[in-house]
Predict the 3D structure of the following.
Amino acid sequence: MKVYTKTGDKGETSLIGGVRVPKSHLRIEAYGTIDELNSFIGLVRDFTTNDIQNKLLYKVQNTLFVVGSNLASVPSAKMEIPNLQEQEISELEEAIDTMEADLPPLKNFILPGGHPSVSHAHVARCVCRRCERLCVALNSHEAIDKSIIPYLNRLSDYLFVLGRFLAKEAGVEEVIWKGIR
């Protein structure tokens, strides 16, 4: 099977279900950004030595494939696409609670940086927030799986706390925002 099909050479692509849309369509932008997020999650995994977080990040990557397949499907598609489960969100919440139990209370805004693992977690968080915004915009035009937006919201929270957790694990101080002087 060849990777190239030439069917998108005129700026259109097919959704699951056969509908052709411009590559600039909001649905394409949403699942393309999910793919970008998944790549950044892979980068975060590459810099994470904590086995528990690494396993969860791997699961997140698999879940993002489910999200992407949902976003790449038209509602009338005959192919069965898996939906997110409430468990996916609760696992992120449990991971956040566990990490926060080991972290000092947050009293300041945190700037990305201090260690490559921390910075990569923050980049992933920002891409996740963009995914969330795109899914909110898409959902205002076409209904999407109702669990996608809460999942992305919780995932961005997880990535923020993960950045703090990774700073602690690396033995570096969090970079505190001190405002403009």
About this structure: The chain has one domain: 23-73+85-176. The longest helix spans residues 116-141. DSSP finds five helices and four strands in the chain. The chain has a mean pLDDT of 89.
